[in-house]
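[STRUCTURE TOKENS]
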Amino acid sequence: MGEHYFSAAPSSPEQLRRIRVALDGRDVEITTARGVFSPDRIDKGTEVLLANSPDAPAGGDFLDLGCGWGSISLTLAMQAPHARVWALDVNERALDLVRRNAADLGLENVHAVTADEIPDDVVFRTIRSNPPIRVGKAALHELLETWIPRLDRHSDGYFVVQRNLGSDSLHRWLDQTFDDGFSTRRHATAKGFRVLKVRHHGDPPTGPIPTD
């Protein structure tokens, strides 16, 4: 199997490049490279996620799960300059790019890290993710089972998944796996993608689950 963007240390030449993208309504220039996810643009799924999820809470700890070069992390950091944004990836090249891009944009609240660098006592006011579906179902489920339980009480996670890559089956799995104090609903559908909203109610919800 060839090298993937979820390799920890890509062996392909880095080939840094500068591209212009729109983040949180700003036209900015960022750096990308080979060996990371969607190096030429903001991919369609992430665009759908950013367009169909609410602005970040005013503060707290946020998680961008599978951050790539940082489109979600940088957006969250712009929206909530007093928050602490954890940009999480296994790909060291991607993490280097997030650090570079955050520094170029003057965003001092972004922390690009691997999983073992996030303190065990940190809980998240929000999680935003275009999760790495192509790692395989078992690895994806393990990833979500690790991080979704760390949503703070009364907080939400938003996950974008392409319909033909299993968004509806993932929705069912989330419902079955996180059934104690959590709920999952389809938040938005656009351009062949679903945005799934996972809410941590804190206690098992009683009565109708709010639609928003």
Summary: The CA atoms of residues 156 and 199 lie 4 Å apart. The chain has one domain: 17-200. The chain has a mean pLDDT of 91.
